[in-house]
Amino acid sequence: MTETFRALLIEDQGGKPVAAFRDLTRDALPDHDVLVEVAYSTLNYKDGLAITGKGRIARRLPMVAGIDIAGTVVESRSDRWQPGDKVIVNGWGLSETEWGGYSRFQRLKPEWLTRLPEQFSLQDAMAIGTAGYTAALCVDALEDWGAIRPGGAEVLVTGAAGGVGSTAISLLSAKGYTVTAATGRPETHDYLAGLGATGFLDRATLAEKGGALQKERWAGAVDSVGSTTLANVLAQINYGGAVAACGLAGGFDLPATVMPHILRGVALLGIDSVMAPQAKRDRAWATLAAHLDKAHLASIARVEPMSKLPELAADIVAGQIRGRVIIDIGA
Question: Is the predicted pLDDT of residue 287 greater than 70, yes or no?
Answer without folding.
Answer: yes
